[in-house]
Amino acid sequence: MTDAIRLDGRVAIVTGGAGGIGGATARLMTLRGARVAVADIALERAEALAGELDGAIAVRLDLGDERSTEAMVATAVQHFRRLDILHNNAALLGPEIAEADGDVENMDTALWDRTFAVNVRGTMVACRAALPHLRESRGNIVNTVSNLALQGHLIQAAYSSSKAALIQLTRAIAASHGKAGIRCNAVAPGMTVTPALLEAFPPPVREAVEDETLRDRLGVAEDIAEAVAFLASDAARNITGEVLVCDGGCSAHVPGIARFRSFFGDNA
Ligand SMILES: NC(=O)c1ccc[n+]([C@@H]2O[C@H](COP(=O)([O-])OP(=O)(O)OC[C@H]3O[C@@H](n4cnc5c(N)ncnc54)[C@H](O)[C@@H]3O)[C@@H](O)[C@H]2O)c1
Questions:
Q1: How many angstroms separate the CA atoms of 268 and 250, rounded?
Q2: Domain segments of the chain: what residues?
Q3: First-to-last CA distance in the chain?
Q4: pLDDT band at 2 (very low <50, low <70, confident <90, very high)
Q5: pLDDT tens digits, residue range 196-230?
Q6: Pocket of ligand 1, candidates 162, 187, 194, 243: which has the most ligand atoms within 8 Å of its Cβ, to mutate?
Q7: Ligand 1: does its nearest atom lie under 6 Å from the Cβ of 21?
């Protein structure tokens, strides 16, 4: 039996590859044998990471810009002469965005449009540009969504709606291109400790989520990277159109579990 989670000979694009989850995924994919295009709007950070990874290149990407997104795919394919995996992981994030993105009654339409332009339109453009190459390699796409795409919350109405749209994009691509040998899946992280998260959410908010987690800690970027590498590998060869929730069980339990612990204890 072979180690099906190996990615030897594969070429992957990781968008947002200079960030927390994207960086961990680019590292893990390289360890598993892939060559990676680290694509990010923060080119210096992408170059620094690519410099550490065997065979990797850095590519500047502005996911909000159609031409830049198409050029990212073209540059990677020109360099590596093939494309097997597109990991759409970049998103519009940051403390000001998280602060401004609240409930619908107070929604700024410019923020809504920007969120959808980057997260949804940009990801669709990346998929559109990659699909002809993935058809040749019988490759696959993994989109990073969020467990907030599956549950209502008091905050981030634009972000969570955009991630829900990406789940449907995932299924649409899986349906249209499955017979051509292309798979498309999504990974849905819960709150995951990355520099972006630490900036955006203060300790009390993180502790509230940790209380809802069924494990003994919040997730870390490497947890998500493992899920992405699995979905991108031959081990997941019969999985397509799926959402793999990777949130430590946060969205898997009855409402109010944090309060129920005081009645029944953790092991009741
Ligand atoms: N960290 C969490 O708690 C969490 C939870 C659920 C989902 N996610 C998702 O995981 C993904 C990665 O998040 P992260 O926590 O690693 O954040 P991060 O900020 O560490 O990484 C995001 C990267 O995307 C890049 N980026 C931002 N805008 C871009 C653009 N227009 N074009 C190209 N690159 C751009 C940033 O420069 C950054 O390197 C995102 O899709 C996010 O929505 C994160």
A1: 18
A2: 11-246
A3: 40
A4: low
A5: 888 888 999 999 999 999 999 999 999 999 999 99
A6: 194
A7: yes
Kindly list the catalytic residues. 159
CA of 95 to the centre of ligand 1 (A): 12
DSSP string, the chain: ---TT--TT-EEEEETTTSHHHHHHHHHHHHTT-EEEEEES-HHHHHHHHHHSTT-EEEE--TT-HHHHHHHHHHHHHHHS---EEEE-----SHHHHHH---GGG--HHHHHHHHIIIIIIHHHHHHHHHHHHHHHT-EEEEE--GGGTS--SS-HHHHHHHHHHHHHHHHHHHHHGGGT-EEEEEEE-SEE-HHHHHHS-HHHHHHHHHH-SSSS-EEHHHHHHHHHHHHSGGGTT--S-EEEESTTTTSS-TTHHHHHHHH-TT-
The protein residue with its alpha carbon nearest to ligand 1, atom 23, reads 16
How far apart CA 198 and CA 90 sit, in angstroms, is: 17
11-246: CATH topology: Rossmann fold (3.40.50)
184 backbone φψ class: left, alpha, beta (φ>0; ψ -120 to 50): beta
Whether ligand 1 lies within 6 angstroms of the CB of 12 is answered as no
